[in-house]
DNA sequence: CAACCTATTTATAAAGT
DNA sequence: TACTTTATAAATAGGTT
């Protein structure tokens, strides 16, 4: 959204990339906060910049959400039974390749596309048209689905959430960590603030 | 955004809340995917619906991001030293306090929370095969929805990301969790697909 | 560089089918 | 119930300060 439409592919210009990263990350956190408040949901967002900086949003707190997720993850069965769906979807995926191939050609006609080398350029000779049809539909649907004041909102998010940047370089790690019960406050980091935007031109 | 502006506060109407939750979650995942692709970032998003269902997005995978985050979290010091909260942010925070007071009062007036029992709270213990059937039907339907513009981005997101819904009820939790090394694949959950969208009143 | 502009693109609240 | 359409609110790409 903006003055000009951009393709969803990696931004080349370093500077633009930095600006976009900052803006979009902020926007992402805001959206997450809105979702939480509007729907009474709870969410956590973790973002690693290309420069390995970590940015985190959480409501009511990132650690709470992650812990909950991990706990659930490790102690319960997934909703969808294992191999069955996997196989089905995988087949759909393969079927999709052909569809995508078709799509790519269509788009090439329209205008300058990327220079190629995408995963969907994979061979599709073995696929049934019917299957391709199906998966295209699947993708279409997914695209659709997946497809007051800013300040007030932001403030609420800040108050009830954690938005902190962790950026200690990996090299400095030590092994004294505690997994659960790690406490941001213990590090002197107040909850509810986002230190994480902007680029310093070093870590990123 | 929409026909009418809405306040960022918990949606009262159950139905609207459901719709909004679905839309916003989808939008959130999409934004996260865009951020990853545009900026070469990596991100994970975990969302718990009010009904405790978990929806996850991850690029390249949620578990990878979370694991990375936890390691970093527990083994390093935060980059930003304690009290160095930017003055600006702190000021905003204080301002927000006042606003929140007002907001709370307004919300109290309105009152009326959900009585629980959202569609996404539907029990899933017994789904098994039946569920598979639904999923299959779901994919079939997708096909018919074929619009004509599957953005490359969406496909990239799909193939390189994880968007899965976990819905095992919290009551089944036990305390034997393993923090690291949990493996989505081990549960038969393929990366790159979102089973969790759509509302049929049963599965989604 | 961090904020601040807007022209446009996106997202989405409601209403429609 | 599910999907589509439409009007509007939001987000944001590229500039400007």
UniProtKB/TrEMBL annotation, chains A, B:
It is found in: Nucleus. SMART domains: MADS. Signal peptide: none annotated. Residues 1-61 form the MADS-box domain. GO terms for biological process: positive regulation of transcription by RNA polymerase II. It holds the Pfam family SRF-TF. The keyword Chloroplast does not apply. Gene3D superfamilies: Transcription factor, MADS-box. GO terms for cellular component: nucleus. GO terms for molecular function: DNA-binding transcription factor activity, RNA polymerase II-specific; protein dimerization activity; RNA polymerase II cis-regulatory region sequence-specific DNA binding. It comes from the Eukaryota. InterPro entries: SRF-like_MADS-box, TF_MADSbox, TF_MADSbox_sf. Keywords: DNA-binding, Nucleus, Transcription, Transcription regulation. This is MADS-box domain-containing protein. It comes from Vitis rotundifolia (Muscadine grape).
């Amino acid at each position: 959204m903006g003055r000009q439409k951009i393709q969803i592919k990696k931004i080349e210009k370093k500077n633009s990339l930095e600006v976009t990263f900052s803006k979009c990350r902020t926007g992402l956190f805001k959206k997450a906060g809105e979702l939480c408040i509007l729907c009474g949901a709870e969410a956590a967002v973790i973002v690693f910049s290309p420069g390995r900086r970590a940015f985190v949003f959480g409501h009511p707190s990132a650690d709470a959400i992650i812990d909950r997720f991990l706990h659930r993850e490790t102690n319960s069965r997934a909703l969808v039974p294992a191999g069955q769906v996997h196989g089905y979807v995988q087949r759909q995926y393969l079927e999709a390749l052909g569809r995508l191939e078709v799509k790519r050609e269509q788009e090439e006609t329209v205008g300058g596309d990327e220079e190629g080398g995408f995963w969907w350029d994979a061979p599709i000779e073995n696929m049934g048209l019917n299957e391709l049809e199906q998966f295209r539909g699947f993708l279409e649907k997914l695209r659709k689905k997946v497809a007051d004041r800013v300040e007030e909102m932001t403030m609420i998010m800040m108050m009830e959430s954690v938005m902190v940047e962790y950026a200690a370089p990996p090299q400095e790690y030590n092994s004294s960590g505690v997994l659960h019960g790690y406490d941001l406050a213990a590090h002197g980091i107040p909850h509810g603030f986002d230190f994480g935007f902007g680029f310093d031109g070093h870590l990123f």
